[in-house]
Design brief:
Elements: H1 8-14, H2 18-21, E1 52-58, H3 61-69, E2 74-82, H4 91-94, E3 102-109, H5 116-127, E4 135-136, E5 139-140, E6 146-150, H6 153-169, E7 179-182, E8 186-188, H7 196-199, H8 204-220
Parallel strand pairs: 6-7
Antiparallel strand pairs: 1-3, 1-6, 2-3, 2-8, 4-5
Length: 239
């Protein structure tokens, strides 16, 4: 991972002093993260009874989780690892970039309140820059890649069609490099990674890179925004 004043490792070390940082990084100084206004997908997975699941990787899982915790219709958003084996699903190991894992968020949603297509629209618009290969913002490595881990053939078909639609419309200056893979396994991250954006809003990394994503969700997807985040009960999350 590239070192920077707002790199995640330096912020992780600073987490103990998160409250003191409030005086250093006021809300007014949040960076203007580049959201992209994009059309909704032309096709979608038909609504069904029961909760649906998709796992989304788009850089540091703190911000991805934070956005979907503020998305109405999302039942839960859990930070974790996908793409590799259970044996290597630990933060320090994944951070080496050699495990095949991507930092990911398991998004469970009620399809009668928010569609799969809307989840993807939010993901491509405010969560991740889908044109960056194996990186997002200050974070570099395959563990920060943009990838959609689908849980059905229908999800994969819609995601592929949506990427083709967005590329054809040239809504980005470069082609989308987001991968689409069938989910083989999801492993929740350590408890201290859960609810991180909500618990540490003034930490420099969060304030600079991730709070703007939540603000963009509120601005661009007002009908899908909820002020109170859906928190993870860390007592019930196991790897």
């Amino acid at each position: 991972m590239r070192k920077s004043p707002f790199s995640r490792r330096s912020c992780l070390a600073a987490a103990i002093g998160a409250l003191a940082i409030a005086a250093i990084v006021p809300a007014a100084s949040y960076a203007a993260e580049g959201a992209v206004v994009i059309p909704p997908p032309k096709t979608d997975v038909p609504p069904s009874s029961g909760v649906q699941t998709v796992v989304l990787a788009g850089g540091c899982f703190w911000g991805v989780q934070g956005v979907f915790q503020h998305t109405a219709g999302v039942v839960s958003a859990v930070s974790g690892y996908a793409g590799g084996s259970k044996a290597t699903a630990q933060y320090e190991t994944v951070s080496t970039g050699t495990t095949g894992h991507a930092e990911s968020v398991q998004v469970k949603f009620d399809p009668n309140k928010i569609s799969y297509g809307k989840v993807l629209q939010i993901y491509f618009s405010v969560v991740t820059n889908p044109t960056e290969l194996n990186r997002q913002g200050p974070d570099t490595g395959t563990q920060y890649r943009s990838e959609i881990f689908t849980t059905s053939d229908a999800q994969a078909k819609v995601a592929k069609a949506y990427i083709a639609q967005l590329d054809a419309a040239k809504v980005y200056h470069r082609p989308i490099v987001t991968q689409i893979s069938a989910l083989q396994g999801f492993y929740p991250a350590e408890a201290y990674h859960q609810n991180y954006l909500t618990l540490h809003p003034y930490q420099p990394y969060i304030a600079y890179n991730d709070i703007p994503k939540v603000e963009n969700l509120k601005k661009l997807f007002a009908a899908n925004y909820q002020a109170k985040p859906t928190m993870v009960d860390t007592n019930k999350v196991t790897n």
